[in-house]
Sequence to fold (244 residues):
Amino acid sequence: MHVLILGGTTEARALAGLLHARPGLRVTSSLAGRVARPRLPEGEVRIGGFGGADGLAGWIGGHAVDAVIDATHPFAGRISFNAARAAATAHVPLLALRRPGWVPAAGDRWTSVPSLEAAAGALGGLGERVFLTTGRMGLAAFAGLPQWFLVRSVDAPDGPVPARTEVLLDRGPFTLDGERELLARHRIDVLVTKDSGGAATAPKLAAAREAGLPVVVVGRPPVPADVPVAATPEEAAAWVLGPV
Ligand code: NAP
Fold:
């Protein structure tokens, strides 16, 4: 049996680790190729786009794939819809692995918005010094703003950024102590984040809560209808392996 994991997340790597080297199972992980030095999962890896839903359907057929798990990031909206179309075309089962979104706790001062553009619009009046953790893509939405920005991303932004921007290249997991120190050192007034979910980047939310800072939270794009969803790599592995 050949399983294709559409990856680029911690959960996709964990799933590849759970399925790798199982008797009778071949696992291929696919990465988009966005990150210069990605953390590679165990097992076979291919890197680069497929050429849309039709290209993905062709790859599935050409490599005798029996099942697909879309374990891409909750904000990678296009590949998930491509996966749904391709799996239907190629007549293979598809599972989405999606870590649950974050939920506000007592003391949180969150403003929920539907897009990066809306996040930029929500920043007025929330403070002068912004910690922007939405990734290096899509920063153009903030480019015209007058505030000072600390942009944290894995690789350097390559599009337009706000005029007053400091870039911090770093990759999670992050610690609460580290995030506290960062907020204090840069005298941050407001945090902007996607609702990525998961533990690796959650400490910034706790640090903002402790400091009483407002947080602008960008909501997730829609997921394709009728695709079953697993919340953890273990659940997704059970979907492949059956009850053990
Ligand atoms: P996207 O907008 O959904 O996808 C854009 C295109 O990138 C897709 O149409 C596809 O190209 C290619 N692609 C995406 N994921 C792929 C994969 N796993 N394997 C092969 N090709 C893939 O995605 P994105 O937001 O640019 O994110 C790209 C990758 O980074 C994803 O795999 C995601 O898991 C990871 N990531 C994204 C974020 C985020 O915030 N968006 C954060 C962390 C990690 P073709 O149409 O040519 O097949």
Notes: The domain at 2-100+221-241 is CATH 3.40.50.720 (Rossmann fold).
